[in-house]
Write a sequence for this structure.
């Protein structure tokens, strides 16, 4: 039986396509430098972790891309353009809750990004709770953040389904006995997930 569904947010319930965003404004060579400095080298994770200040994290981006300081400032000033609402988010949550399931979120998310575009999180009131990494000082796939949500909401791992687009996060959940689904897109995954929930009633 599955009685709790735990959603990731970025690239599951909310669009977050940073590479295409950067390519809108910069040539391919510069786009690669910027995405490496900001996202691919793991420094963006420090925003999600919420321990270092915004200024310190941005300074680390700039230190990793000498000569691109103004470009990095531009990216950070416009980064909310990466975030897009998915029209399916609220109906999907309602669909799952109509099956009698509790619905939660577990997301690597920064206070900065939340403040930049709060409206993309309009589905939160429909959920039963959740965990943002910036509020806890740790990020997926750290075991601690999974323990936090399981304990806070008294979720039994074997009766939960965790939906995430990141394989490392999925493997960390599996190691704790949580059921998982590696998400690629709503169109591809929705029916399989709903069948799985139906079969696990």
């Amino acid at each position: 039986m599955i009685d709790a569904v735990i959603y990731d947010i970025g690239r599951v319930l909310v669009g977050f396509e940073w590479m295409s965003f950067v390519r809108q404004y910069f040539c391919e060579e510069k786009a690669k430098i910027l995405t490496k400095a900001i996202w691919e080298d793991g420094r963006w994770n420090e925003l999600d972790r919420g321990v270092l200040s915004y200024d310190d994290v941005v300074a680390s981006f700039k230190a990793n891309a000498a000569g691109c300081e103004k470009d990095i400032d531009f990216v950070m000033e416009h980064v909310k353009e990466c975030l897009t609402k998915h029209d399916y988010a609220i109906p999907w949550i309602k669909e799952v809750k109509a099956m009698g399931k509790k619905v939660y979120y577990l997301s690597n998310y920064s206070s900065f990004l939340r403040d930049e575009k709060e409206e993309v999180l309009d589905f939160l009131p429909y959920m039963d709770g959740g965990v943002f990494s910036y509020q806890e000082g740790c990020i997926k796939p750290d075991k601690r953040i999974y323990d936090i949500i399981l304990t806070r909401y008294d979720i039994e791992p074997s009766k939960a389904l965790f939906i995430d687009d990141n394989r490392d996060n999925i493997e960390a959940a599996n190691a704790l006995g949580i059921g998982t689904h590696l998400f690629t897109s709503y169109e591809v995954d929705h029916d399989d997930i709903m069948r799985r929930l139906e079969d696990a009633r």
Notes: The chain has ten helices and seven strands. The domain at 4-15+84-199 is CATH 3.40.50.1000 (Rossmann fold). The mean pLDDT is 97.
